[in-house]
Design a protein that fits this description.
2 domains, binds iron/sulfur cluster, 10 strands, alpha/beta, TIM Barrel, about 375 residues, globular, 8-stranded parallel β-barrel
Length: about 375
């Protein structure tokens, strides 16, 4: 049985469900993609998000949508599709790649196209003045797309510039209950009438489908992931991506398909309880993420590293924090480049911290807590 679900404007041209099906993880086979998309439809999801760089995802989606039309009478027109292109290459390369995406998806035009990973100032320049500019002009002239947006893992100021540049109708951002550093940007984008998609609030948001006992206990009577979803929906975030791999992954999306209203008292109290317990566990060493300690002359991403400390000690999500910490310096422009071991103990950051944290010492502690093998304890 198909159920109704709330739809909201994502930019100006499309209305999407509160959850979006992310397809990076469901690329094992046509059977998997088909059953995941069919289940998404059954829980009221109408928005599929993919990318040319997600392996065979576009081909599998194209074939699944055709199969759904023939076997299940689910029209292709029922779906809003977003795909993404990387910010690189010249006009011909981009045209070829985009035409290939349309062919793979078996579409003549697409609802939304996002610039995938607008992470550097060079990427924004590419969109505004370079080959990206020519490409966007071309796809609009040819009426191949309804609207253009971007996804970004970049800095606050870069995302702010991208939101304000008047080219984009939507943005896909890292917005998480355990990382609220980009929430103001989401609010800015919403105010400008842009659609906002939260990238992976379950997984990249702290692996909340596998919560610590601390989080489970603190968030009662809710599951921590349910609260994290509700926090974002109540903030007005248009849609939350759900990288489903199996049917059970849709449980919360079904339950919350109409839950965009303000937080209830019970939800507020549960969130307060999570913070109270995290504060107690961090014993006055919680980094409040105000970013006033920046810039560090040695480019240490202090708030990002101390956020991982908050997450591992305060909320008990140690394995997630370890994974993120050990990715620093290994993911190019998709994540931070320097971990705590680059701190030179110059102490320049310390007087800038309103919470009076001993930042160099906390950075060392975090390194020793999270660094994986080959384990090098830098400051015994
Ligand atoms: S003490 Fe370390 S983190 Fe602080 S400003 Fe100096 S190098 Fe940067
Ligand atoms: S100034 Fe202090 S509280 Fe603020 S982000 Fe930096 S370390 Fe955290």
């Amino acid at each position: 049985m198909i159920i109704n679900s709330q739809k909201r404007f994502f930019g100006k041209k499309s209305k999407v469900s509160l959850f979006t099906l992310g397809t990076m993880r469901s690329t094992e086979s046509l059977d998997q993609m088909y059953s995941i998309i069919k289940k998404a439809h059954r829980v009221g999801i109408n928005h599929i998000e993919t990318a040319a760089s997600y392996g065979d995802a576009e081909i599998l989606i194209g074939n699944s949508l055709k199969k759904l039309e023939i076997e299940d009478k689910i029209s292709k027109k029922d779906w809003i599709i977003t795909t993404k292109v990387l910010p690189k290459g010249d006009l011909n390369y981009l045209k070829n790649n985009f035409e290939n995406s349309l062919k793979n998806l078996k579409l003549r035009k697409i609802n939304n196209l996002a610039i995938h990973g607008l992470n550097l100032n060079d990427h924004l320049d590419w969109v505004l003045f370079g080959e990206g500019h020519k490409f966007i002009k071309w796809i609009f002239e040819k009426r191949l797309v309804d609207q253009v947006g971007f996804s970004s893992h970049g800095s606050y100021s870069l995302i702010q510039k991208a939101i304000n540049c008047e080219v984009f109708s939507f943005c896909n951002l890292h917005l998480h209950y355990l990382d609220q550093s980009k929430i103001n940007l989401a609010e800015l984008a919403l105010k400008k009438g842009m659609g906002v998609l939260a990238i992976s609030p379950a997984d990249k948001g702290g692996r909340l489908y596998s919560p610590s006992d601390i989080l489970l206990e603190a968030s009662k009577p809710f599951h921590p992931l349910e609260l994290a979803y509700r926090f974002l929906l109540a903030k007005g975030i248009t849609t939350l991506s759900l990288g489903a791999t199996k049917i059970e992954d849709f449980e919360l999306a079904k339950k919350l398909r109409n839950s965009y209203q303000k937080l209830t008292k019970l939800e507020i109290n549960a969130l307060k309880n999570i913070e109270k317990i995290a504060d107690e566990r961090l014993t006055s060493t919680k980094c409040e993420q105000c970013r006033l300690c920046l810039p560090c002359p040695n480019e240490i991403p202090i708030p990002e590293i101390l956020r991982l400390r908050n997450i591992s000690i305060g909320y008990g999500q140690l394995e997630f924090a370890k994974e993120r910490y050990n990715l620093i310096g290994r993911a190019g422009h998709w994540w931070e480049e320097k971990n705590s071991s680059f701190c030179l103990n110059c102490n320049e950051c310390v007087p800038k911290c309103p919470t009076k944290l001993d930042i160099p010492d906390l950075l060392k502690q975090t390194h020793n807590l999270l660094i994986e093998r080959p384990r090098k304890r830098l400051w015994d």
